[in-house]
Structure formats: structure tokens, C-alpha cells
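Quick start: read one record
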Amino acid sequence: MKDDYYRQVYRVKGLYVSCDGKKIKREYENKDMFNANSWHHLSIQTDHDGNQIIRTKDHGVLRVDELVGICFCPPDKYGHKWYIIHKDRDKKNCHKDNLKWVPSYEYRSFCLSELTYTDEQTGEDFVWSIDDLYVSKSGRVQYKKKDLVVEQTISDSDLGCLRAVTPFVRKGWNGNHYHVDELVANVFCKRLENVEHQSILHIDYDMTNNKESNLKWVELDDPELKKYCEQEKKDKTAINLQYSTLP
């Protein structure tokens, strides 16, 4: 067996994964745990989505394809969110040659049928955007098929009042903030080709209108974007004036 058959997972101490994703072993410092053998082969299971997983006490549930991908075929670039796909669409085939890291838009295109559903009450279609958040063309955002509240203010503890911000949603009270326009534009609005840095323009200059038809990607030096940013600043100032400082 080649020495490169196993590689160590850098973020989990003592964990090694094979290049075909069929074997995962872990080395423990306490050899008495396994009859003086420091190596313990972990059981690979299948979750409700068909992904191959292992369960650990210190790191919880880990996906086998991501472990193989991290060790044998890491992303070309770092700095933004990457997702892993199985080239043959077989989630049980976790061989390194069958895996590829892709950005969110390519992942969505590859798995579109699995990342779309229709709201039973309204009939609106929702498409995956990022981090298990789904959006509709009207600007609604759902998590676990439930609408998230779009927030437009945050509490400023230093000033003792509410301050206007770009509309956002979050998963849970302490969850990460996601700008609604970015969630919608990432799914429904085509990005500019061969332009590395671009931003989202609200066509009607209304930062609260996050419908797909009101958003488009533009270059950072676009005059319309400058006008929109100026209007957004004015709107936030007007909202801030509505809230008096707390005693």
C-alpha cells in the first residue's frame, strides 16, 4: 500500500483518512484503550441526506467527502466559501478523483434539483443561496422552510438607541448576519463576466426592496452605484432620527 494512501486531517488530532474515503483511522495517546493498539478504525455511516459521515466526541459529525477533499484535493484558492461536489453524483463515492471544491454558484447549478422547493402556502419557489438559507424572487428568506424576520435596525449600546443598517436576516439570536440583497442576487442575478470586484445595485434606490427584479450586479465605479450609496446613507440617517436616545 502506498504511503500516500492515508493523510492526516490537520484540524482533528490523530485522524487519518484514505484517498478513496473507505477507511478512516485515529491514533490515540492512551494505547490501553484498545488493547495496546494506538490505532482505532472508525465506523463510516450514512446520514439522512445520503452523505458518508463519521461521529467523534470532540468534533461531532464529520463528512467523509470533506475530509478527503481537505487532505487530497484542497480548493485552488482560499478566502471565500467553498462546497464539495461528487462528479458522478454518487455521495457514497468519496474517492479523491471524484471530488471537486466549487464556489456557491457552481454548487447551486450542479445540485439545483436538490436545492429547490415550493412553499406550500404561497406557491413561491425557493432556491438555496448559502448556509442552508433559501430565497425567493420576492426577497423572502427561509431557514428550515420557515420565514426569517428581515431586520433593519440594530441596538447600539454605546449610544443607547437603535441604528439603521442594511436589511439582514440571521439564524438564531446570535447567528451570523446575512444581507438579504446578497442572498437574493447570488441566486437570481447574473454576475458580470471578467469583473473580480462588483457590488449590488438597487435599481429603484430603495435598500428595503430586495426583489430579484430590483437588483443587479454592477462594477464598483458605476455612477448608479454611487448614487444608490448616497441615497442609502440618507435613508439610514432619516431612520436614525426617528429613534430617540434612551435615558
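The chain has two domains: 3-110, 116-242.
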